Amino acid sequence: MHELGIAQNIIEIVQDQTKNFSNRKIKNVFVKVGKLTNVLNDSLLFGYDALIIGTNLEGSKLSIETVSAKIRCESCGSESMIDGLAFYCERCQSTSVKLISGMELTVSEIEIED
Amino acid sequence: MSVITVERKVLAKNDVIANENRSAFKRNKNFVINLLSSPGSGKTSLVEKTIEFCKSKIKIAVIEGDVQTDLDAQRIDKLGVPVAQIVTNGGCHLEANLVKDALHSLNTADTELLIIENVGNLVCPAGYDLGEDFKVVVLSVTEGDDKPLKYPAMFRNASVLVINKIDLLPYLKCSIDELKKNALSINPSLKVFETSCTTGKGIDSWCGWIQSNLQSK
Q1: Are A38 and B126 within 8 A, CB to CB?
Q2: One digit per residue, pLDDT tens: chain B, 217 residues?
Q3: Are B65 and B44 within 8 A, CB to CB?
Q4: Cα B102 vs. chain centroid, distance in angstroms?
Q5: Prediction ipTM score
Q6: What are the domain boundaries of chain A?
Q7: In this structure, which CATH number among 1.10.260.40, 3.30.2320.50, 3.50.50.60, 3.40.50.300 belongs to the domain A2-67+101-112?
Q8: Does B188 touch chain A (CB under 8 A)?
């Protein structure tokens, strides 16, 4: 259910960033969602589409880029993707690892009509 | 078509308020823990036991977060500790602004330990900073030893794991070793406590950890 609140935050960011372009139509909003954020894309899209009705974002499309989870090993320095669970280095098996991607939740770009 | 590059964090607004809360906590020397778990793991019982064990030594205040009712606040109130209830009316987690509002009804200048009991949910609350010192996840053995693997974000974001209801272990298939192994595979730096709020076992170690953190404030 927290996707609705996240969609509302996205809309507020877009409105803030486009306030100087109020006569131009917003076409696309690009967001990055990390795999470990527990955000369901379908729920986020549903919330976005419901909340933009009656706003200056009505008719715009939310495009979600899913960012995979990646770790860097603090022992051997190698980087590897993780599939949800294994927070250890694939190369040397060390559990001393740093999460370097997978927690993103950002609005990256907004496309507006000229 | 023109493109505006934004790169703005979606939850930036929450993070700003969480940092304001953090500054206020630092000013008042409050040690703040954010208790997270699924519904029914025994969070409120753990808060009660913590109060009973520490009340004579530590000034405690509690913020209770629930989807509905002030039943939990009533339980804490009976122990004579200041408590503020946040009712989210369907909201599945606490956000920093709700905590900020709740702070108005508590005298945090005269508080050493502030316990925030989040809404029962192993998913959403993990992503929201409230300004706390530590996220503490409570997992009861009745929920099964596989839960850390099923809800990795929660166990990854927490600093402390309290395994509760250990008095029930003889009646369950849950293996506490397996549970710990699973939790530590997600987050090797988790500090782990084992408690029973029915028998009181382990409450002394848990409260000892709280007291040692208070001393370093």
Answers
A1: yes
A2: 899 999 999 999 999 999 999 999 999 999 999 999 999 999 999 999 999 999 999 999 999 999 999 999 999 999 999 999 999 988 889 999 999 999 999 999 999 999 999 999 998 898 899 999 999 999 999 999 999 998 988 999 999 999 999 999 999 999 999 999 999 988 989 999 999 999 999 999 999 999 999 988 7
A3: no
A4: 16
A5: 0.86
A6: 2-67+101-112
A7: 3.30.2320.50
A8: yes
